[in-house]
User: Fold this.
Amino acid sequence: MAQEYDAVFVGAGHNALAAAVHLASRGWSVGVFERNETPGGAVRTEEATLPGFRHDLYATNLGLFAGSAFFKEHGEALARHGLALVPAEDCFATPTPSGRWFGVSRDLEQTAARAEALSPQDARRWREMVAEFGGNAPHLFAILGSPMSWRALAGIGWRTWRAKGTAGTLELARLLASSPREFLEQNFVSPEIRAAMGAWGMHLDFAPDIAGGALFPYLESMVDQAMGMVVGKGGADTIVRAMVARIGELGGVVQTGCEVTGIRHGTGGADGIRLADGREVTARRAVVAGVTPGALVERLLGGDSGDVGFDAGARRFRHGPGTMMVHLALSDLPDWSAGDELKRFLYVHLAPDLDMMAKAYGEAVAGLLPVEPLIVVGQQTAVDPSRAPEGRHTLWVQVRMVPGEIRGDAAGIITSRDWAEAGEAYADRVVDIIERYAPGTKAKILGRHVETPADLERRNPNLVGGDSVSGSHHLSQNFLFRPMPGWARYRTPVEKLYLIGASTWPGGGLGAGSGYMLAQELGRR
Ligand SMILES: Cc1cc2nc3c(=O)[nH]c(=O)nc-3n(C[C@H](O)[C@H](O)[C@H](O)COP(=O)(O)OP(=O)(O)OC[C@H]3O[C@@H](n4cnc5c(N)ncnc54)[C@H](O)[C@@H]3O)c2cc1C
Assistant:
């Protein structure tokens, strides 16, 4: 029997699921079609190493989701379907080889005491920055939470000017334009604090000297200080399971194992999709694709959207360097040389200074395996022991950054140019670095699962070259330019065909922004 819905979604990433939840709650019939056997895209939890060890294979930090406008509206309904979050009071820390370290805990006195031990001047500046944040946050979140247009920006600019005056508005604009290094060196003297905050830029593709990169380190640090971090109880996929269940409750369907191979469109715009198994699905009001602009044009529209500018923009769309994941099952948490306190932190960043981050980024964009990448060590079981057998732990290790295609090894040791061969050898380098900061960790490893940039892309084609946020976030491809100039509002040249997902404004991460903003607009029709 032919299937027919008001809205048909390509891919079951969290943005598409959020949009489907919202539209279904407004009475639309929705059908979501996902190529993988599991929905969720970059949100996926699996027993990847050993039975009983639940690893968030990709995304783990649910702070953006918990703080999102989508969650504010639909969180209660999702909680009825089992969505559960676990807070982390000790958020992120950076140890250095000297043994000095800085970490941000939700308790301001604890954070400030750590800053004081490094530099009394920085401790004062930290407290000031935290106090100022309340005045800056509404304006910054207004930008990130608005569909992107000149009119929206002008309105936010006007309101900011009324609240903060000319000097305050210019100061915020300067923050938006600054590189992480400019912002951090202007505010803090201690290399440990600079490194701890600067590491957040590297979660996107903001190495220390990239303009526009200061915003995320600032926001994540201040939000973590004010609210702490959160992970999903039992795994990040708690959000996916709850959204899928809510869609079902509202009469919608999420079908997995269904690769979408084309979008049907004619003079009336898009009216359905074609599946790899030959089936067609009709969309009465909207086709919503949660893919990259390149995949939309090349794979789903046969290379021609009907607008040469859009097609050229889609082909020009730039992806950032790759990510590699190393998942470990451990008999116990690492014994960090910097101190036992580090065992309590959700994230331990192994990136002792801004210069090493800049070097790792430079090597990765040049196609080289970095001598020393930035390593994000996620200790989820420190806050959510339910993810591993009693007394055991998982370690979530994100490697930033690595090349999507290997041209060489900056250390001159790994000779293979193929991730299928180089992956395990590079994971050994990563584990060796962890061992340097936490001697004895290797002996605690019970199981290991590695996903290279090539694996990431194979399991989710939106992660081109292992780019974990589906497109560079540099200023030339952000704000009004995301995914390309003139197309920041989720429309495409094909009527009734919309593009959402991390490649579109407001970008990567689990804020459900593009899905929710588009669904709000469609739902009002
Ligand atoms: C390793 C890693 C770690 C991350 N860590 C965090 C984190 O801790 N916190 C955070 O906020 N963000 C994190 N992110 C980023 C965040 O996970 C992503 O930006 C976000 O999940 C993107 O969501 P999306 O809605 O764009 O869809 P995606 O998650 O990209 O999912 C798209 C889905 O569409 C499917 N699809 C694509 N093409 C087709 C087709 N033709 N037919 C059918 N289905 C198709 C794919 O299989 C996929 O399931 C991380 C990402 C990665 C990779």
Summary: Residues 150-177 form the longest helix (28 residues).
